[in-house]
Amino acid sequence: MYDVAVIGAGVIGTSIARELSKFNINIVVLERDNDISTGTTKANSAIIHAGYDAPFDSLKGTLNVRGNKMFDKVCEELSVPFKRIGSLVIAHNDEEIKTIQELYNNGIKLGLSNLEIIDGKKVLEMEPNINRDVIKALYAPSAGIIEPWELAIAYCENAMDNGAELRLNFEVKNIEKKGENFVIHSDEDVIETKYIINAAGVYADSIYNMVTESDFEIHPRKGQYFLLDKEAGELVNHVVFPCPTKMGKGTLITPTMDGNIIIGPDSEDLTINEKEDTNTTNNRLNHVKDLAKQICTNIPYNLNITTFAGLRAEPTGGDFIIEASKKVHGFINVAGIKSPGLSSAPAIAEYVVDIFKELNPDVSIKEDFNPIRRARIKFEKLSDVEKNELIQKNPQYGRIICRCEMITEGEIVDAIHRNAGGRTVNGIKRRARPGAGRCQGGFCGPRVMEILARELNVPIEDILQENKGSVILTGQTKVGC
Ligand SMILES: Cc1cc2nc3c(=O)[nH]c(=O)nc-3n(C[C@H](O)[C@H](O)[C@H](O)COP(=O)(O)OP(=O)(O)OC[C@H]3O[C@@H](n4cnc5c(N)ncnc54)[C@H](O)[C@@H]3O)c2cc1C
């Protein structure tokens, strides 16, 4: 019997699990996929927004501002790289100047004290490669960039270091109320718990429908992106947005934490039955190119290394839905967590735990909670002396597996054996970055598979690219080779 089952191992479910692991309770995180952060958390703009954008009287506005302030401490504790590079919203005409003034005023109401409206000349000094027709911009120095999947993995690892359990490949199919408790079924398994926290992303409405008729719906809204090689890394130095519209913050250009450039997203409403549609399409990517021209006409698309798409969880009402169900005791919804969900994650986790504590006033603090996650070694970033010392201790750090990103065997083995370790080729890419470079795993993919098979002691044919069914090898083509 668990005290709490968190459904969904995206950045929201894992941040909540980590916050809950500060208490003396049994926690399980249930995830339908083969890894953490395979949903929206792996495909978004990766910005920690300053918080001027969401309406000042909305929950998402308040939690964004609070969440942004928490990132330095959280990232230090969890050893997750995070940089406050600042953001700019560009205005080209009087109408857009009015919009950035409204954003500024909204930010002031939300308590942001460091926003500035700057003139075009200053913007061009900060961003010499953008179009020269900029007149003014809203500058928010506290905006930052992060790797969202690394944050979710780190949250989950730290929650597990503090006693939480993770069950992958557990797709919640049915929930029964049994007295005060819940019985949760997947196709192969069943667990019992006192409380449920529903953090199932675009499926949060379906999960709630399993216990009562849901009073909200979640519609998927797709956004597509280009990812440019590190060679394009000097294109912009800040997160550069156009003026927002009613469909969202617009198509931005930003450096990533690893020195690439991303361009996107667009905004396309899908039907409620299209929650698995994360394909990219030529039409929409051309539309992204058209939108990005508002900011910069010199984007080197010849340096594009991949494209991707993510699904926003667009809720009825437009705001985050975070509350204890009034109809089903012990069930807490954390639904409709679209942007700025990533930026709000630490604040959402605290907010949810406050709701949990209201339901459980006697829950006691875990005295030996350890907030620190062991840092992962980034071999390429070490000095020559440090590299040599490490290789002396463990020769696996002397073997480069991914030449694009200079990732060693030692880093891959570590990514497999940590709590919440990677089990798939993409899972290892998210944790240690082999395959994230220009060749996108063309060379290192087979080596990563061999290491996974060896370390997990399974046949290499069992190593998957990502989720169930994503088989890479089916058998030998030549017997006796
Ligand atoms: C295009 C785009 C751009 C964005 N940009 C930003 C940004 O720059 N900054 C920002 O702050 N926010 C941004 N966001 C929003 C942010 O990405 C999300 O708020 C955040 O990732 C939501 O995390 P989550 O954990 O709620 O959802 P998810 O990451 O989708 O996690 C939900 C999990 O639940 C699991 N699940 C679903 N059904 C079941 C089931 N039946 N049983 C078990 N598990 C289940 C899924 O497999 C998934 O892993 C963006 C979103 C999109 C789509």
- In total, the number of strands is 22
How does the major sheet shape up? 8 strands, mixed
General shape: globular
Strand content: 15-25%
In whole angstroms, the N-to-C terminal distance is 51 Å
Query: What is the architecture of the domain at 84-144 and 219-306 at the second tier of CATH?
Result: 2-Layer Sandwich
Q: What multimeric state do the chains show?
A: single chain
Task: Give the uncertain stretches in residue-range form.
Answer: none
Q: Number of helical segments?
A: 12
CATH superfamily of the domain at 84-144 and 219-306: D-Amino Acid Oxidase, subunit A, domain 2
Supply the helix-strand structural class.
Answer: alpha+beta
CATH fold-level label of the domain at 84-144 and 219-306: D-Amino Acid Oxidase, Chain A, domain 2
Radius of gyration (CA) equals 23 Å
Mean of the pLDDT scores?
95
Question: What small molecules are bound in this structure?
Answer: flavin-adenine dinucleotide
Helix amount, in percent?
Answer: 25-40%
Overall CATH class of the domain at 84-144 and 219-306: Alpha Beta
